[in-house]
Amino acid sequence: METPFTDHLTTADYEQIYEPAEDSFLLLDALEIELTYIKSLQPQVCLEIGPGSGIIVTALAKELKGTLCLATDINPLACSATKKTAKRNDTCVDSINCNLVDSLREKSIDLLVFNPPYVKHEDYNIIPLN
């Protein structure tokens, strides 16, 4: 699976959205390994929650011809970046500014992708449960 171009995004963009990093590329690799199986499912609707720059959903949109590819994010700048990434890579992704799946009909997604942000425990103050 081809890694989408992101040369249209700037340092200023990455101050507001998640820049593709090792976890993004690992997810792309994992999806590529499973691509034959994913295609066999013939998903009609694919959703990525929290797309950041949009590279994951854009890569899927390029591979899943005929599938409606959506992205949802609470950050309107991520929604805009995702649309731009799809356009830069000659594909289409509909990006919706909302929380998780709040704007979507129940049971309307065939393929869901979510690469949530995380904080390494060394970088985060853990509060004891007691």
Automatic annotation (TrEMBL):
<keyword id="KW-0808">Transferase</keyword>
<comment type="similarity">
    <text>Belongs to the eukaryotic/archaeal PrmC-related family.</text>
</comment>
<dbReference type="InterPro" id="IPR052190">
    <property type="entry name" value="Euk-Arch_PrmC-MTase"/>
</dbReference>
<keyword id="KW-0949">S-adenosyl-L-methionine</keyword>
<dbReference type="GO" id="GO:0008757">
    <property type="term" value="F:S-adenosylmethionine-dependent methyltransferase activity"/>
</dbReference>
<dbReference type="InterPro" id="IPR002052">
    <property type="entry name" value="DNA_methylase_N6_adenine_CS"/>
</dbReference>
<dbReference type="Pfam" id="PF05175">
    <property type="entry name" value="MTS"/>
</dbReference>
<dbReference type="GO" id="GO:0032259">
    <property type="term" value="P:methylation"/>
</dbReference>
<dbReference type="GO" id="GO:0003676">
    <property type="term" value="F:nucleic acid binding"/>
</dbReference>
<protein>
    <submittedName>
        <fullName>(Mediterranean fruit fly) hypothetical protein</fullName>
    </submittedName>
</protein>
<dbReference type="InterPro" id="IPR007848">
    <property type="entry name" value="Small_mtfrase_dom"/>
</dbReference>
<feature type="domain" description="Methyltransferase small">
    <location>
        <begin position="42"/>
        <end position="123"/>
    </location>
</feature>
<dbReference type="GO" id="GO:0035657">
    <property type="term" value="C:eRF1 methyltransferase complex"/>
</dbReference>
<dbReference type="GO" id="GO:0008276">
    <property type="term" value="F:protein methyltransferase activity"/>
</dbReference>
<keyword id="KW-0489">Methyltransferase</keyword>
<dbReference type="InterPro" id="IPR029063">
    <property type="entry name" value="SAM-dependent_MTases_sf"/>
</dbReference>
